[in-house]
Design goal:
Blueprint lengths: L15 E6 L2 E5 L19 E4 L11 H8 L13 E6 L2 E10 L3 E6 L1 E4 L2 E3 L5 E6 L3 E5 L3 E2 L5 E2 L2 H8 L2
Antiparallel strand pairs: 1-2, 2-3, 4-5, 4-10, 5-6, 6-9, 7-8, 11-12
Length: about 160
């Protein structure tokens, strides 16, 4: 933590502060309910932005962090658009394709679940914005198990569902 931090303007008036990336905050004088629908970067109620100068962390990575880093997604490039991924929603996992990205979210077109590691495309597109933390990893395209159903690679599925 730096010894001196810059002052966020009008701190005493703030009713809502949202941070999605280190050193960046979105704030407003009046709370907005868009955040309850996970639309965290809306422009309601005179939204303002502020950035702190963030220094890199000096911590030593543990073995757990190193394992997580092997599946870390590099969100800064356009190379993720069109890639297959697995998202976590309500403690369940679903495959989908990344349609779009912004600073903190990925828009993913998801499949629906029809059983253990069985998925299908719904009749109506199921496309939502997910926080980067909810996108667990990039995966190869799921393979067909029937004419309509697919499955995530069994080794990947076992890794993600292991307790």
């Amino acid at each position: 933590m730096p010894k001196v931090l810059p002052v966020v303007p009008s701190t005493m008036r703030l009713h809502q502060i949202i941070t999605l990336t280190p050193g960046k905050v979105i704030y407003r004088d009046v709370s907005c309910l868009c955040s309850t629908r996970q639309i965290l970067e809306c422009a309601c109620h005179n939204t303002q932005r502020f950035e702190f100068d963030v220094q890199p962390s000096l911590c030593v990575p543990t073995e757990e962090h190193q394992v997580q880093a092997t599946h870390e997604i590099m969100w800064d490039g356009r190379n993720v658009i069109g890639q297959w991924c697995v998202i976590k929603y309500d403690d369940d996992i679903y495959p989908g394709t990344i349609v779009e990205v912004n600073e903190s979210h990925a828009k993913v077109k998801c499949m629906h679940n029809v059983g253990r590691n069985r998925f299908f495309w719904p009749n109506r597109d199921d496309t939502l914005w997910y926080l980067f933390d909810d996108v667990l990893r990039i995966i190869p395209q799921p393979t067909a198990v029937t004419g309509r159903h697919v499955e995530i690679d069994r080794e990947i599925w076992a890794e993600m569902t292991a307790d």
